[in-house]
Amino acid sequence: MNKSTWNTKLLSTLVLALVLSACKSTPMNTKPVAVEDKSPGQTTTSTADTGADTSGIKEVAIDGNAMDSDKALKDPNNILSKRNVYFDFDSDAVKAEFRPLLEAHAKYLLAHTSAKVILQGNTDERGTREYNLSLGQRRSVAVKNSLNLLGVQDAQIETVSFGEEKATEGCADEVCSKQNRRVDVVYENE
Amino acid sequence: MHILRFFKLQFATSMPSKLSFFRLPISKVLNVAIFSASLFIPSLASAALDIEISGGSAQQVPIAIVPFQQAGNSADNISNIIAADLKRSGLFRVLETGGVVNKPTDMTQIKYSEWANLQAQAMAVGTVEVLPNNRLKVTFQLADVLKQTQLTGMQYTIAPNQLRTTAHKIADVIYQKLTGESGIFASRIAYITKVNERYMLKVADADGANPLTMVSSKEPIISPAWSPEGNKIAYVSFEKKKPIIYVQSLSGQRTVLAGFKGNNSAPAWSPDGSKLAIVLTYGANSQVYTINADGSGLSRVTKGNAIDTEPTWSSDGKWIYFTSDRGGRPQIYKVSANGGDPQRVTFEGAYNVSPRFSPDGKSLAMIRNEGGKFRVALQDLATGQVQLLSDGSQDESPSFAPNGRVILYATRSGGHGALAAVSADGRVKQKLNESGGDIREPAWGPLIK
User: Fold this and answer.
1) Which among A140, B379, B401, B446 would be 20 to 30 A from B187, CA to CA?
2) Nearest to B145 by CA among B171, B104, B176, B113
3) Interface confidence (ipTM) of the complex
4) B397 and A128 Cβ atoms separated by less than 8 Å
């Protein structure tokens, strides 16, 4: 289960409020002061949810919570604690060196059929955010395919992507960039 | 509170054909600031008035904004805000009125010869009165100094905190009356900031003033998209450790639009606001879907194994343009909003992504990677011609101003994310930063009617 919660906070400073869209235009051509009445509606707490915003902006704050998890998954001496699959530049090929890692996770998932794993794809920061989100997804799908081949069913796997959002910013060299081109194996509820 | 800081803008503009009042030249290059915080307006003003002219005898409309007789205790000076807006548009030369003894506050008091001596062609006069219920009555009139006639007049009864926005509305009325084009001073922009590992979706006035936070999260937020009416923003939040699309009204109501298995991203409203194009993955690669604005009626639009993402609607709502790597490298394609076989749109260059329609539907802004530099490009849809507009190396997220004159986009500056704007003809640019953090993912909101 996921205990992510959001708290809704009211930002009481109403600065932007204006409902000019809801108002009536009344041309007043009486000379010499000819004006057009463009007054907003008479209430500033209009609930009408059309047109421009009526009463300012309210802030929503979000905070997540981590959950307990199986100790084996966190034991540094257990290969299950290894969670990162790295990729070459512009590639979604899962390299042979990560086979023991994926085999261990496949074995765990087959033994714990209620466990679910989330594969989180990542890219480096070059390129646009949404396209990188899709490229990261391509990598998480590649890892899923590897787990499928090892017998894990789709019902236990979700493939998602963070794109470049978790990338180390301003990478100056390949050692740094390589860290960003990866899929993280994350168990649900941990 | 963070302040959008004005850096420098040079801005080329071609004049509208529909000039009802003043004859303005066909082409000229102006220095224009589109954004600035109010704090920076005084220093900005002089910089904004440097004019570089290319071709023709360009001139700005000389206009006097006579200080309004302003009652009440608002910190916002309405005349100053109107003047600053008009200056930033680059189409006006706002005259210094300090030397004129008589300061009229309505048409009847104007001594036209004094203003003609100042070279004013147009002038605005007005008042702000406090009503017994503490509301404010704002009255303004725009006069043609040469013909000694009124061009327009408006009256607004507002809450005191609406003074600033009313000033932008008045500037829009003046701009529209004198240029024949829609003004954008009363519109707003949305953007994402990342400060101290916290992500915030913010909305600010088009001049960068009044930045307010809509959402704040420890996890990333990307891809804000305004509803056509300007009352809601769709965006992608990673707060549940995966991308999920939310729709949030500016008044704070927040709902999940799409939280399906896999990724949910890249929301784009249809022009009539009834639907959104979105990108879902389930257990495979990104694909384009449409969904009703209430979250019902999910319908798949593209069908393939390649990446299809970044949908955007054509202005008539019939087509969805999107990014796809079905041909090997990412290019822009279009598909009927009801589905069918996609057609390729971009052929020049090896990497074209992030399509965005101009408000008139005649051109497509995009991000092009050439030689490892990601830049804003503009393609004329009739001729297919492409012009590179920006000169950064990591530019992204192009977003048109609602009158189509300017494209706002994200860039990098001094190791941080910053916003920049470029005129639609590419000649002039501006950067703005937010102090103490990254600013990115800009989206220019619609005109407020």
Assistant:
1) B379
2) B113
3) 0.81
4) yes
> Which stretches within B118-212 are classed as H helix?
163-179
- Rounded distance between C-alpha atoms, residue A88 and residue A57, angstroms: 44
Which residue of B165, B231, B286 is in closest CB contact with A51? Answer: B231
For the record, the structure tokens of B187 come out as: 């519109």
* Residue B329 in contact with partner chain A when CB distance is under 8 A: no
B311's tokens: 């949908």
From B157, B213, B262, residue closest to A11, measured CB to CB: B213
Q: pTM (2 decimals)?
A: 0.79
Give the start-to-end residue ranges of the domains of chain B. 188-444
Residues B207 and B167 sit within 8 Å (Cβ to Cβ): no
Number of Cβ within 10 Å of residue B399's Cβ equals 25
For chain A, what is the radius of gyration of the CA atoms? 26
Q: Domains along chain A?
A: 1-65 (no CATH), 71-187 (3.30.1330.60)
Q: What CATH homologous superfamily does B188-444 map to?
A: TolB, C-terminal domain (2.120.10.30)
Contact A64, A6 (CB under 8 A): no
B121-166, pLDDT tens digit by residue? 999 999 999 999 999 999 999 999 999 999 999 999 999 999 999 9
CA distance B433 to B8: 11
A138 touches chain B (CB under 8 A): yes
The pair of structure tokens assigned to B3 is 């302040």
Touching B: A residues 62-121, CB under 8 Å: 62-64, 118, 120
| Residue A23 pLDDT | 34
